[in-house]
Amino acid sequence: MVRSGSGRWESRNVTDSLSYRIVESRGRIELREYAAYLSAEVDVEADDHFAAANRGFRPLAGYIFGGNVPKAKIAMTTPVTASPAGESIDMTTPVTSALGGEGTYTVSFSMPSGWTMDTLPRPNDDRVRLVENPARLVLANRFRGRSDAKRIAAGSRELLSYAADNSLVTLGEPVWAGYSAPYVPLPLRRWEMLVHVRRER
Known about the structure:
The protein is α+β, with helices and mostly antiparallel strands and 201 residues long. Helix content is 16%, strand content 41%. Strands 4, 5, 6, 9, 10, 11, 13, 14, 15, 16 and 17 form an 11-stranded antiparallel β-sheet that branches. Strands 1-2 form a two-stranded antiparallel ribbon. It has a two-stranded parallel ribbon with strand order 3-8.
């Protein structure tokens, strides 16, 4: 769920999305406030964020589709995130991935609202861990279509430039976030570059 300009909360996807409030927007760039949320994460070795997202998807999907105690089904949410270890921005769906080369990536699924750390099922796969994420301010750059390395790099530069020009301090590196299922036609696929920020004091 996302908040529209009229102040109403509405769904943009068949899959639910992490809720946020738009603080300001300019073109494709939005400054958002996200409430605290829970996520399931796994670390994988991969050559890039695309490979990491694919490799991390299986154990996380296994967890939400019943690979847990007591074999509960957990609704899929967007985004899923994949980022070099230590740089993750955990969301619902999309999948997110920060820029980086070969190494360890953290892939994350956000959990739907309503769950707590006490009520979330325990993963059967010991690679999957459950994480509490505090409320945060996030700068987002929204895109449709192909998300190749060139567009991702350009989108990251736009985010960092916007932050520098608007008295925002970036906390970590930009992270790639994908919202669309594999069956969505390429021109219609939604993805974003995200970066955690704070206002200059």
